[in-house]
Every structure is written in structure tokens, then in C-alpha cells.
Write a structure and sequence with these properties.
elongated
């Protein structure tokens, strides 16, 4: 996706994107759940891999301009698959998810 955006941008063009990234691996029961997939979390990349993909596509000045942790209340209704997790595993999973806004230039 980033290569195609890089291809169509004019020289000096700017990219702004908002996406979900992970700071740690999610437990398989969360990652593989339908709720995580439909919530754009199951397929999320690790933060460093996401930013590296932008750099590999040729973007310069890649920087995170804003970041928000996923509010716990969004996960009040945990997917059925996650109910087998310990409280610590659930807390760890929630802390691993972040919404970032990234700026970059061609």
C-alpha cells in the first residue's frame, strides 16, 4: 500500500495516515478472534514494522504526530475467545494496542 501511495504522490507530496499498531504480540485467542479482526486489531502490525514499511517504500521524514491508547471501555465486551485469558493477559493485550497518526513526505 505504501509503495502505491509513494508512486502516485507528486514530488514533495505529504502523506498523513491514521492506523492501529501493536507494541507487543497479542495473545492468539485475542488476535485470532473475529472481534479483533473486524476491529482492525487482529491484523495490525507492530509499530516498528509499520514505520519500517513506510521507510522501505521511500518515504522520508516519517514521524508519529499523535498517539492514543485504545480506551479500555471499547473492550468492555471482550470476544468470547478472550474470556479464557487471565486478567493480566487481557490487561497486557489492551496495553499493546495503539492508534497512531503518522506524517511522511515523498
Amino acid at each position: 500500500m505504501f509503495r502505491e501511495i509513494q508512486r502516485v504522490l507528486k514530488p514533495g507530496g505529504r502523506l498523513m495516515v491514521s492506523d492501529i499498531v501493536l507494541d507487543a504480540e497479542l495473545p492468539a485467542k485475542v488476535k485470532d478472534s473475529v472481534a479483533a479482526y473486524t476491529g482492525c486489531i487482529g491484523g495490525a502490525l507492530k509499530r516498528q514494522d509499520y514505520l519500517a514499511a513506510m521507510a522501505r517504500a521511500g518515504f522520508a521524514q516519517v514521524e508519529i504526530v499523535a498517539e492514543t491508547k485504545v480506551p479500555v471501555d471499547l473492550w468492555a465486551d471482550l470476544p468470547e475467545e478472550a474470556k479464557a485469558l487471565t486478567r493480566e493477559e487481557i490487561k497486557s493485550a489492551l496495553n499493546a494496542i495503539a492508534s497512531i497518526k503518522v506524517a511522511a513526505r515523498k
